[in-house]
Please model this.
Amino acid sequence: MSEGIVYGINPVDEALKGRRRKPLELFVARDGGSRVRALADTARRRGVPVRDSDKRELERLAGNARHQGAVLRIEPCSYVELDDLLKIGRDRGEPAFLLALDGVTDPHNFGALLRSAAGAGCHGVICPRDNSAPVTGVVERAAAGALEHVALCRVVNLARTFDLLKREGLWIYGLAGEADHALYSVDFTSDLVLVVGSEGKGLRPNVRRHCDQLISIPMQGGVGSLNVSVAGALSLFEVVRQRHKG
Model:
């Protein structure tokens, strides 16, 4: 697997902490401001080589012009096994809390969902090997460093994975706009997986059939649906609210 690329001030700052992946080399704009210079200082203190670069080089590395003067080469994204995800919650003494993505192919949505999952304290994110956005610089920037905090698991078949998780005592809740059960009426205090579908099509039929319950977000004001990353974030933090109320 090739090395990863992280760009942008905040994503690079998080990646330099090296919780999950080793930073390899930092490229910074020669005329970068104080925040870029601070990143360079941090990198040097941690033994990460720093290279002054011009605008063209940074754009080539990042693949676009939104690098904010900093691009970091980093070890590729590593994936964990399903058992490792379950172990995270057990080690913390917490009910299992996982997010599954069924066909989320937009890198901005993928990154935003990773960020929300990390912020909610989700133990890990499950995505299929196929029909899912790969981890790219765009995903890393949208995630804003979340991949340093949340575990990612790739599986061959989501439906079979759900069967395995059910045998471990987890409940599978799928988000579906037409579902009769509202998000706020469901008890999320037990071991669970939240499942969000693709942009536009939602959950695939076979994935729906393997969910224990389909849930919807009550909508008002004439808007029919929410962006998948927004819907995912609302659902993740409803779990947090229920588990931390009082």
Q: What stands out?
A: The mean pLDDT is 92. The longest strand covers residues 23-29.
